[in-house]
Structures are given as structure tokens and as C-alpha cells.
Amino acid sequence: MSQSASIAPPSPRTLRLGMAVSFLLMLIALGVFTLSLRAANPVGDDGQVIEVTASGCEPNRLEVPAGQRTFTVVNRSDRAIEWEIIDGVMVLAERENIAPGLRQPLTATLKAGDYVMTCGLLSNPRGTLHVVAGDSSAPASTLPATAFVGPLAEYQVYTTLQLRKLRTSAVDLRDAVAADDLDAARRAYREARRIDLHLAMPIGLYSDIDQRLNARADDFEQREADPAFVGFHRLAAGLFGHQGTAGLNPVAAQLVADVDTLAERLKHASIPPAQLAAGTSRVLEAWLDHHRDDSAIAGRDLADLVALTEGADKIVSLLSPLLEHRSPAVQQTLQANLKALQRDLPAAINSSTPSGVAAGALLQATGTLADSLAGINQTLTLEG
Amino acid sequence: MKTTRQWIATGAFALLPLAPLTALITAPAAQAAVAPEALVGPVADYKLYVLDNLEQLVSHTRDFTAAVQAGDVEKAQALYAPTRVYYERIEPIAELFADLDASIDAREDDYEKGVEDPDFTGFHRLEYALFHDDSTEGMEKYAQGLMDDVNDLDSRVQGLTFPPETVVGGAAALMEEVAATKVSGEEDRYSRTDLWDFQGNVDGAREIFELFKPLAAQEDAGFVERVQDNFDDVEETLADYRLEADDPSAGFESYDRVSDADRRALTGPVTVLAEDLSTLRGLLGLN
Known about the structure:
The complex is a heterodimer.
Chain A: H1 2-6, H2 12-40, E1 48-53, E2 56-58, E3 61-65, E4 67-75, E5 81-87, E6 90-98, E7 103-110, E8 113-119, E9 127-132, H3 149-178, H4 182-198, H5 200-204, H6 207-214, H7 232-241, H8 249-268, H9 273-291, E10 296-297, H10 299-326, H11 328-350, E11 357-358, H12 360-374, H13 376-382
Parallel strand pairs in A: 1-4, 3-9
Antiparallel strand pairs in A: 1-2, 4-7, 5-6, 5-8, 8-9, 10-11
Helix pairs in contact in A: 3-4, 3-8, 3-10, 4-7, 4-10, 9-10, 9-12, 10-11, 11-12
Chain B: H1 4-13, H2 22-25, H3 40-69, H4 73-89, H5 91-94, H6 98-105, H7 122-132, H8 140-158, H9 164-182, H10 194-219, H11 221-239, H12 260-277, H13 280-283
Keywords (chain B): Signal
Family (chain B): Belongs to the EfeM/EfeO family.
Signal peptide (chain B): 1-32
């Protein structure tokens, strides 16, 4: 073309100089980019990176020093996953519903010992996490233990009494399913599910029971058709999705058996004090993980949030006296955040239509309460 | 001296007005061998025990006050002691609510004008009417008041986080109560049903002791054995006055029939129990 013809080609010398300059500029840019990354994310913020593929964790074995550690979980599979650190059968930390291609950070305080990592599908092989002793900068678990005897005992009473109700509802549900009484089964389901979520924190400490009670179809290879898919979501799929009790007899019977196992475990369990707040924050976060992208919250999802908030209320009431003596400001903020969510919830239920209520305010209030609960252990420790 | 943290921990629990002062001024126990988390289970079990007894207290009080309101003196007399037992068992916790403890269980001596005092209410006001006056006249409002107070107590206790110091200290508190007011026979001076209360206090103290016994045994096996023996002695003496040996619900003979020798025989182990049990808190690292 005439225009390009009018421009003289650069000489070879100019080209070489240009290349050198652009290489230099690239190096500088790279340096600045790296520096900016460091400024935004302090060194080591990513911590250990774990990639979860369709078949498991990479790496499958990790070793970290004891103390507060950050892990970044990258989902390299083609479906949403969860990632957990498990001590025996108790869940120490988890991220749920990580979408394909995304990375999510998780911070946990770990004592020396061997832990298990779940890696996507429940059928995938589990990874091992080896935590070695010797980091003095470590655990936030230095809370005065006697201070928690009262709250922990009260929480044990609460779980015992709630479990009695849960068992009654689970038996009602089983019987209604056996009698093919859909209305009664739905009623019993709602009551049982509400208590299940009151106890979401302690149940979440037992990964096997938590799976059998609360795993979602997406957690299983064959989703809803997977024979291992049982528990509340399986029952809901039948009672509300397929509008019937067909095929639910064994699932409802299994639910009763799992509730009994849970009761037996919790009777002998000692819930670590730090789990009261951290575990409650986690179950709220887990609910959020499943609804972050929703524009509306409806029906049973809303009922789930109501029940989780009732469970959180118990925890806040137990920890408030301790917090009040250490940091009245933190205690007041926590109370205010709980009240804000509780205020939004009845409004949400009252204005709830089949299509649901706008998610924005609820998600924000839930996130704020979860964050505020997550910060409490630090407050108790720092000011203890 | 206590560290700041211990002060805060103590303060946090102390339902402050009622916390024994010793909790605030005593140095930490030398034995801290009992892991604090080991106390959680027994404290929780104790609350479940208290809740069970409260449920019984509510239902028995309903029957008792209904009998008073129906003017059935004989039935009300018969239900008086079996109802009180449930209150006497859980006194360490019930006492935490001073207003209700006064309106439910205060005696005439606690009031300036004695039985004539308008504030004298509850079990002992009804006892006076039933056993001294042999009448339920004018007692409807006291019966209703007692029922309301017991319901109020029930809902307050349900919401209460039990302070571990109060729970463990409760065993001694109950035996001190026996030593101070039961052996003398002043508690139920009109009904003469003191032995029912006596047994209720012993049951409540023994429950606490049994719940914490495995932990206490790790610290001091001799202590556990001594306390057990004294409990057995007390219960043996009490058993002599049961109306039916095999049926605790049949109750006890009138306290008038307890011989002076037996009153003295009870005083010994009761006093020793109160003293021994008062060391339980320190033994479990709760001072």
C-alpha cells in the first residue's frame, strides 16, 4: 500500500537496538509486576498451593511446619469441589464449592501431626498432610482452657437436647416415608433439617457423618443417581424434587442410624474451644460458598440460613461473656452483626415468594457475621 | 497470685454477685493435673441432671398447687415433701437466683414479721397453712405464686451456662446446708418432713461427687474413699427411717421420731462430708 511504502524500513542496527531496549523494558516491567504482586500479597500469602484434579490432589503429600498456615486450593477439575483438612474423623478446616478453574485460600492453625486432605470427589484418594513441630510463632490455641469449661459444657447440653429432637424428627420422617405420607414426611424433613443445621458446626467436625447427612449430589461421581448419595439432600430431592417418597425408605432409615452414630460420637467428643467460633464461621461460609452467585434465595435455602443463624446465636451467647471481659468492642460488633442478620431474615421470610428474595443484603449480612466470628479466637487469645 | 488471665477467667464465669469470694482471693491450686477439658463432660451431665429434676419439680409442683387450690388439705399435705425433694436436690443452682430462692424456699425466720409477713411465700408459707392451720384457706394466691416461680426458675436454668466452680462447689454447699439447717430440724418445722429434704440434699451432693469422682480419684484416691464411706454412713442412718425399705417413694418417718443419738450420729459424717467436699474444687483445679 502507498502509505506503508512511504515509511522507510529500519536499519538492522536500529532493529538490534530496539530489541535490546524492549528486552530491558520487559525486564523492568516484570520486576515492577513482581514487586506489585508482593505489595498486594505479602510474601508467602499463597502458602502451599494444592491443585485438585479430577482424580486427586497434586501434590498428594505435603509437609508444613506447625502453626498458622495458608493453603491455596486450585480447582483443575471440571466440577465444583471441596477441600478439607481432617484430623482423624474431625474436620479442622475446609473450603467448599470451589468452582472449576478458581483458586481459594484457606488458613488453618495446625499442631504437629499427620492429617488427611480430601481431594475433590469423595471417591478420590485422599492426600496426606504432615505437620512438623518446632515453629514458635505458632498456634492461636493458647486460650485459657478453664475459661471454656462452662461454655463447652453448655454447648454439650445444647447438642444433647438438640440431638434428642433430631432423633424424634428423623424417626417421624422414616415412618412417614414408610407410610408414603408426603405431607408428614416433608414436615418431619423440615424439622429434622432445621436441627441438623443448628448442629452444623459439631456435625462438620466429623467428615464421614457430615457426608452421609449433608453431602450434595454434585459431590458424587454419578450425582443424584450415585448409590452413595444419601442424607438430607437425597431426601429433599425425592420429597420436593420428585414430589414423592419413592425409593426413600432406605435413605430415611440410614438417616436415623446416622443420627444415632452422631449422638454416640458427640457424647464422648470434646469440641476444641477454638471450634466454637471458627467452626461456626466455617458453616456460614460453606452456606455462602453455595450461594455467592445467586441473585435470589428461596424456600429451603432460606430455611437453611435461618437454622444456621439459630445455631450461631447459641455460640454467640456462649462466647459473649468471655469476649465482653476482653474486648467489649469486639463483643458488641459480633452481637450487632448477628442482630443485623436476624433482622434481615424475618423480612426475607415474610417477603419470600416462590422465586425467593433478593440475595444481596442476606449474603452480605451472613458474610459479615462469618468474618466477625472468624476473628474472635484471635481476640480472645491476643487480649488474654 | 493469680495471673491477669485467671482473673479474667474467674470474672467471666462468676455470675459475679454470687461467686464465693474465695474464688477471687485464693491462689491457684498446686495440683493442676486435671485437664480443664475433662471437666466439660461432668458439668454438662450435671446440667442434664438438674434439668431432669426441674422437669419433675414443675410437674410435681403442678399437682401440689392444684391440690392446694382445690382445697384438698390431705392430698396437699401428702404432696408437700415429695415435691420439695426436687428443689432440694438442685439447690446449688436454684440458689443462684436469689429472688426466686427467697420466694420459693425462704422460711419465716427470714422475714421481720415471721409468718404474718406479706412477703413470706412459697413452700414454707404453704407448709404453715397445711400443717399448722390444717387448712388451705387464702392459699390460692400462694399456690399460684409458687407455680409461677417454679416455671420461672425452670426457664432461667435452661438458659444458664453453669459456672463449673458452682457445680463442683455445690456438693459441699449441700452438705453444709444439711449440717446447718436440716439436722436441727428447723427446715420443715410444721410438716416434720425434714428427712425428705435431708435425702434430697444428700442425693444432690452425691450426684456431683459421682460425676467428678473419676477425676478426683486421679488426684487423691484416699479422699474419694473417705467421702464414699461417709456418704454410705449417712445413707445408712437415713435408711433406718424409711417407711418402706424397698420403696424410696414411700418416704420417711416424722423427724420427731429420729432419736437424739441418731441426730448426733448424723452430725458427724455430715460435717466431715461438708469439710471434705469443700476441697473438691481445689482438687480439680477450679479455685
